[in-house]
Amino acid sequence: MIKTAILSTLLISTFAINADNNNRNQGSNHSSSPNHSNHSNHSYIPSHGPQASPGRVARMSPSQRPHVARRGDVWVGHGASGSPSRLWRSGRFEGGFGPRHIFRMEEGNRSRFRFGSYFWGVAPFDYIFCDNWLWDSDQVVVYEDPEHPGWYLIYNVRLGTYVHGEYLGM
After folding, report:
1. What values do phi and psi take at 146, rounded to 5?
2. Where does residue 50 rank: exposed (0-12), middle (13-18), buried (19+ CB within 10 A)?
3. 113: closest CA among 150, 144, 82, 152?
4. Rounded Cα distance, 49 and 139, in Å
5. What is the DSSP annotation of 124-146?
6. Whole-number Å distance between alpha carbons of 110 and 35
């Protein structure tokens, strides 16, 4: 009788813990695609985008890619590219910014990719930094770029790196 009660309690606890973990892992996935494997080995999401700081760049070594340092949410390499302004040629993105809006890429490549009903393109000067992105499953977060009007920063959750992106519309 006691063994049965203990076993029942353990089983119920196991199911409750698994259900709770599943609910936590759902997040705000704005994608309409099925929940693919996360492939995550980084999974840190910055609490905010970079701060406007003309002339101040957190430099990266030649072997690094633009990334966000966990300590202080420092956007390493931002501003170093001297990216030109785009002035929102296809309109402004209004799908949500920051860590509360996680999107799953569904298809495409660096020149044109999609999540949900939103189409994007990576800035040509950042092509080299996204050669290891999974265009059909990586999770990304969009941040506004305070120093380069018309560009956004697309942060890859799995890799912890980011690129400049242009919103191409719906």
Report:
1. -75, -15
2. buried
3. 152
4. 17
5. GGGGGGGTT--TTT-EEEEEE-S
6. 22
Eight-class DSSP state of 41: S
CA separation, residue 56 to residues 61, 93, 143, 147 (Å) = 16, 27, 19, 11
Tokens of 23: 């609910």
What percent of the chain has pLDDT above 70?
64
Give tens-digit pLDDT for 32-63. Answer: 333 333 344 567 899 988 877 655 555 666 67
- pLDDT score for 31: 44
Residue type for position 130 = C
pTM of the model: 0.69
Token code pair at residue 59: 């430099």
Q: Express each pLDDT in 98-137 by its tens digit.
A: 999 999 999 999 999 999 999 999 999 999 999 999 999 9
Reference 161, options 48, 65, 74, 97; nearest CA is: 65
Q: Which regions of 30-148 does DSSP assign to beta strands (E)?
A: 67-69, 74-76, 102-104, 107-109, 112-115, 118-122, 139-144
